Amino acid sequence: MSINKSKSNLSLKNKLKSLFSGNSNKSRYQSKLIRGDFDSLHDLNIAYVLKGFPTLSQTFVSNELRYLVEDGFNVVVFCYMDPADLVELDFDLEVIRFDESDDPTGKLEQLLLDYEIDIVHTHFVYPPCTEYTFPVCDRLGIPFTVFAHAVDIFKYDVDKINRVDEISKSPFCKGILTLSNYHKNHLIERGVDKDKIHITRQATDYEIEELELKERNVRNIVSISRFVEKKGIDVLIDVADILRDEDYEFSIYGFGGLEKAYQRQIDELNLDNISIKGRLDGPQEVKEVFDKADILASPCRIAENGDRDGIPTVIFEAMAYGVCVLTTEVSAIPEVIDDGRNGFIVPPDSPEIFADKIREIANLSPEERFEIAKQAQVDVQDTSSVDETMKTLFLTWSL
């Protein structure tokens, strides 16, 4: 997506500037954001505190940082682990490890002081915010925000130790961003003040192209995900087994610890209509897959340990590229996908129903599928973009 931020951001900056006017008697470590002694948002020194960066499965983080860098903001990343994947950034950004010290918390504290950081933003409540951003910013008096996703708040063992209620009550916590009303209700149940919660989708960045009517039959069904339990790839393999005598081809793209188990399941079922293709490196490869796809299959589920998706980014990407989405009634997905209107949705862990829905989609006319794809494009532009995410983040900093 081509982004023309200059005009919209200028009015936003002027609005924020007026909101930030005035002084307060805070400690000398309070940021310009609170003291109101800066000329524009571009005067702020912004730090992202992350676990590892960059990570292939967290393109939304890279999209936020690219937005800030390309728009001239002063931003640096402090992280405490190597990224899970080898990913090259397509923009210049300083990334500093702070765990290579006997006292990583103290090292982060010193970095925030040395770089004269005014505001800190973190993705995932646990571990990075719980263990680093929250205690360090609380001690220094630096405002911070955190984006709550899924594994960091829903996984049962993490839910007990993430201290999200304490984090939200810090006077320096400007707010908690999260993906949906489903997430918001969960956070409220954990003791977070509803006024501290701000809903926005993850920062997606894709190119909206004019759709063309596809006269071809539905045949190519793709899945793009990490190979973890909550993604439900084993269910999709069972779906392929149910449809083995019908003219569908399933392609599984991704990576992760369950790959051998999935291949073993395919081999044991003796399937030749489904194959594991490996990981996709970057948005261009994702687009190339979607160009040939008829359905994105995303059979999400709640894992035994409580982990679940928030809203998979790949669903937004498929909607943007005009690929029919077939997914499940898990977490916040029903807030995005309206069955038969902009996609299709079925109960989780239900391979027979999932297979029947594929047949239903295939039996639609090309014109009916085209109207659903167009509606999906309209909806995704209204709800999910890096512009909308950053606007919410900026406004949260102003509160």
UniProtKB/TrEMBL annotation:
InterPro entries in the cross-refs: Glyco_trans_1, Glyco_trans_4-like_N, Glycosyltransferase_grp1
Domain Glycosyltransferase subfamily 4-like N-terminal: 59-200
Residue span(s) of domain Glycosyl transferase family: 217-376
One GO molecular-function entry: glycosyltransferase activity
Gene3D superfamilies the UniProt entry points to: Glycogen Phosphorylase B
Assigned keywords, A-Z: Transferase
Name assigned to this protein: Glycosyl transferase GT4 family
